[in-house]
């Protein structure tokens, strides 16, 4: 198209008539004045200058403008953006049935390029599901868009050019389309709509609407999930102990219409194989667990596999693997008691006979001249320094309190710091003497999971034995698991010998988790909580509201009593012992992080003499499975306990290598943690047509099925051409016009002055 240039008056007809009359009147007056002067030449030139000034003013009064119109020299563009990410490998689309004219156009273009059309060539069955990527191939063929070639430049590009095939980012290609494509008039987006990276695509659609660029969306794939059975999670603990049973929970997600029975297989890196029968629920999730008893120490990898079901279509998601470290355990436990009641005696025996526990006992017996005992398990006084107390993983407080010859305020403060700062565990085990009530007025009162009745410090006794009743949380907790199955476990707790004393508990505190309540007694707050836990700082706290657990040995010896307290000790010491060296410990929360989830790293750093490091440079170097390295600087949390804390957000799944180092002590600790999470982009997920429809609606485009691509081509052909760019030069307000008028008026005045007319 040619450019246009023209001179226009914008004042309108009225202004033109008025200015013409003014100019004519001025010419008449000037001629009369020249006649009166006897047609003097000097006077004539002066009146001519007057007429020119009036004509200039009249012209400016009509608002003259010089207009230039530039037509685009290049054709406008249409962007065809298609999805080529992993989700397009999902086999839930069907072969396109294009209109005959489009099919003929593609065939003719192929023949023109030397490709022979074979009528006998096998065509895809329109009733057989194919991959989404195969279904859209005719839509991204350049021949399909030839009818627009004379009007537009058609640009075809994949989404992976923006973010890679490992993720679907619909926002970025839409946002960049207008910047990377000249004179963009419209966009065709061919995708399944399943985006998992970047900002919401509707934000890019809004920006395109502001530029009046419509987006036509073509959705491929089914919005319904394919028949599939997926192993969604395998929750392997970070470490376990040789010779102890490991419980490995897993979750199966089924999209099959009927439940079925299958056998899952757990395989270790040493070749050991375990199986378990699982009934998989229809159209839902099934959570179960398999147990494994490792024999020897070392680093293992365990894999869980679900057999392929005859009706499922995606076999790749039926298996998961995760690492686990098997160690030789040695946990240190401190038991503090005032009177050697039966609960204390049997607890001490249970912990002493546990090969993975090193127990120390402190007995404030009223009949003894000084604290202590008669065996090597006893210590003579409560640890009076942080370095002595910090070696204990769990502290049991029996029927002891703050009084002369027992604990003091400083002891309570140190215990609280041990729990909150160094992730140790604390167990409250009150007794009928009620000494534990005095602990509630110290800093330990904040840690207790329940509220106790001060008016009844000695608790309540009964001739009729009471019984525990597990709550819903208790039935699922590892602490209360005394049998292999959930049903058997509930039955075991119902059959346990009863207790004849319980603490005067009023209610559980906010944030506490109640595992078991009194089976018969309740108050205005509900059933009395007798077994409750809570998290305090980095550590865990347990409240045991009876002193009758030793009775669980009746008829079964150590079966349930030893198992329960062994589980309590290991549960409380788990985080604290994730990774430890001579002078450093490292633990993190959550202990089974997922990709993109913020992890909190806690490091306990001690000096060579065992004292906590008050300040220093503690750095964690984390190497992801891809080799990418991140450095996290841990900042000190106070100056007393040697605790340093930092945060890290893993971006990859798999095993991460960690090197913890302290500049001041020169110590290093090497460990690893496993991040759960599959790739962002996976095959098998349903299409999301609602996303595509929203993009089209926001941009005033159109959302169609693949077979309706002809409507998109027709709509694109009707798009208006881009408007010409216009440049206007407003002469009536131009500074040069004002300067010229001032010069002419000045010349006219000077001339009249020189002629003696002023």
Care to describe what's here?
The radius of gyration is 42 Å and the shape is elongated. Helix 1 (13-36) runs antiparallel to helix 2 and helix 6 runs parallel beside helix 7 (201-210). By secondary structure, it is α+β, with helices and mostly antiparallel strands. It is 24% helix and 30% strand. The strands form 8 sheets. An 8-stranded mixed β-sheet has the order 16-15-17-18-26-25-24-21. The protein is built from 16 helices and 36 strands. The protein starts with a strand and ends with a helix. The longest helix has 24 residues, at 13-36. It has 5 domains: 4-71 and 727-754, no CATH class; 77-117 and 127-225 and 684-708, Rossmann fold (3-Layer(aba) Sandwich), CATH 3.40.50; 229-327, Immunoglobulin-like (Sandwich), CATH 2.60.40; 331-484 and 491-576, Class I glutamine amidotransferase (GATase) domain (Rossmann fold), CATH 3.40.50.880; 578-675, Macroglobulin (MG2) domain (Immunoglobulin-like).
Main attributes of the structure:
5 domains, 758 residues, alpha+beta, 8-stranded antiparallel beta sheet, Immunoglobulin-like
Task: Give a topology summary.
Blueprint: E1 4-9, H1 13-36, H2 41-61, E2 64-70, E3 77-82, H3 100-112, H4 132-135, E4 153-158, H5 160-163, H6 171-180, E5 184-191, H7 201-210, E6 215-219, E7 229-234, E8 239-241, E9 246-254, E10 260-268, E11 273-280, E12 284-292, E13 298-305, E14 319-327, E15 331-337, H8 342-352, E16 357-363, H9 386-389, E17 394-397, H10 409-422, E18 425-428, E19 450-452, E20 460-466, E21 468-470, H11 472-476, H12 486-495, E22 499-502, E23 505-508, E24 513-523, E25 526-536, E26 539-544, H13 561-573, E27 579-580, E28 584-589, E29 599-605, E30 618-623, E31 629-636, E32 643-648, E33 654-662, E34 668-675, H14 689-698, E35 702-704, H15 709-717, E36 725-730, H16 735-754
Parallel strand pairs: 3-4, 3-5, 5-6, 6-35, 8-14, 15-16, 15-17, 17-18, 18-26
Antiparallel strand pairs: 1-2, 2-36, 7-9, 9-12, 10-11, 10-13, 13-14, 19-23, 20-22, 21-24, 24-25, 25-26, 27-28, 28-29, 29-32, 30-31, 30-33, 31-32, 33-34
Helix pairs in contact: 1-2, 2-16, 6-7, 7-14
């Amino acid at each position: 198209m040619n450019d246009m240039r023209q001179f226009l008056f914008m004042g309108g007809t009225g202004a033109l008539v008025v200015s013409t009359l003014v100019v004519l009147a001025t010419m008449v007056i000037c001629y009369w004045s020249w006649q009166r002067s006897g047609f003097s030449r000097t006077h004539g030139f002066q009146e001519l200058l007057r007429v020119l000034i009036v004509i200039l003013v009249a012209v400016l009064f009509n608002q003259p403008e010089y207009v230039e119109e530039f037509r685009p020299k290049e054709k406008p563009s249409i962007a065809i953006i298609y999805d080529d990410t992993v989700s397009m490998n999902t086999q839930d689309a069907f072969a396109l049935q294009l209109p005959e004219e489009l099919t003929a156009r593609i065939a003719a273009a192929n023949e023109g390029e030397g490709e022979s059309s074979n009528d006998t060539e096998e065509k895809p069955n329109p009733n057989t599901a194919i991959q989404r990527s195969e279904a859209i191939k005719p839509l991204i063929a350049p021949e399909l868009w030839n009818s627009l070639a004379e009007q537009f430049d058609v640009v075809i590009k994949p989404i992976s050019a923006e973010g890679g095939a490992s993720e679907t980012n619909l926002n970025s290609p839409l946002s960049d389309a207008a910047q990377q494509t000249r004179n963009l008039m419209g966009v065709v987006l061919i995708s399944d709509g399943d985006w998992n990276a970047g900002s919401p695509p509707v934000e890019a659609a809004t920006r395109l609407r502001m530029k009046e660029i419509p987006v036509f969306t073509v959705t491929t794939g089914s919005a319904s999930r394919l028949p599939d059975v997926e192993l969604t999670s395998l929750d392997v603990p970070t470490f376990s102990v040789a010779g102890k049973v490991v419980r490995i929970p897993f979750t199966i997600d089924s999209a099959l219409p009927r439940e079925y029975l299958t056998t899952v297989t757990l395989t270790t890196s040493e070749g050991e194989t375990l199986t378990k029968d699982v009934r998989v629920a229809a159209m839902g999730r099934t959570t179960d667990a398999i147990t494994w008893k490792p024999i020897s120490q070392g680093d293992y990898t365990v894999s869980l596999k679900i057999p392929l079901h005859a009706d499922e279509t995606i076999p790749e998601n039926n298996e998961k693997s995760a690492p686990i470290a098997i160690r030789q355990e040695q946990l240190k436990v401190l038991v503090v008691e005032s009177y050697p009641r039966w609960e204390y005696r049997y607890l001490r025996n249970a912990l002493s006979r546990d090969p993975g526990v090193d127990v120390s006992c402190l007995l404030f017996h009223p009949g003894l001249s000084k604290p202590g005992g008669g065996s090597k398990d006893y210590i003579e006084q409560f640890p009076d320094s942080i370095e002595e107390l910090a070696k204990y993983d769990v502290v049991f407080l029996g029927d002891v309190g703050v009084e002369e010859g027992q604990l003091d305020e400083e002891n309570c403060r140190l215990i609280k710091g041990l729990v909150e700062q160094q992730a140790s565990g604390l167990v409250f085990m009150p007794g009928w003497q009620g000494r534990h009530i005095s602990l509630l007025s110290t800093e330990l009162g904040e840690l207790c999971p329940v509220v106790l009745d001060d008016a009844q410090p000695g608790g309540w006794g009964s001739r009729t034995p009471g019984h525990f009743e597990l709550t819903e949380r208790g039935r699922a907790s590892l602490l209360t698991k005394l049998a292999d199955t959930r049903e058997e476990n509930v039955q075991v707790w119902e059959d346990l010998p009863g207790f004849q004393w319980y603490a005067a508990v009023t209610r559980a505190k906010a944030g506490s988790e109640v595992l078991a309540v009194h089976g018969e007694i309740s108050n205005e707050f509900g059933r009395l909580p007798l077994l409750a836990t809570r998290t305090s700082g980095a550590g865990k706290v347990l409240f045991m509201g009876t002193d009758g657990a030793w009775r669980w040995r009746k008829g079964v010896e150590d079966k349930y009593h030893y198992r329960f307290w062994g589980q309590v000790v290991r549960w409380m010491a788990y985080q604290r012992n994730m990774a430890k060296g001579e002078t450093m410990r490292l633990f993190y929360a959550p202990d089974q992080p997922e990709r993109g989830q913020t992890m909190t790293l806690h490091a306990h750093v001690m000096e060579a003499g065992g004292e906590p490091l008050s300040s220093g440079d503690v750095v964690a170097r984390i190497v992801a499975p891809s080799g990418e390295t991140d450095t996290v600087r841990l900042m000190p949390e106070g100056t007393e306990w040697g605790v340093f804390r930092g945060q890290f957000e893993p971006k990859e799944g798999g095993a991460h290598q960690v090197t913890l180092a302290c500049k001041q002590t020169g110590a290093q600790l090497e460990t690893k943690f496993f991040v759960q999470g599959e790739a962002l982009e996976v095959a098998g997920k349903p299409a999301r047509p609602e996303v595509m429809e929203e993009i089209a609606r926001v941009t005033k485009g159109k959302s169609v099925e693949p077979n309706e691509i002809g409507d998109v081509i027709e709509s694109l052909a009707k798009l208006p051409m881009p408007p010409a760019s216009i440049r206007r030069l407003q002469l009536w307000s131009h500074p040069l016009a004002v300067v010229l008028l001032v010069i002419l008026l000045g010349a006219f005045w000077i001339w009249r002055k020189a002629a003696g007319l002023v």
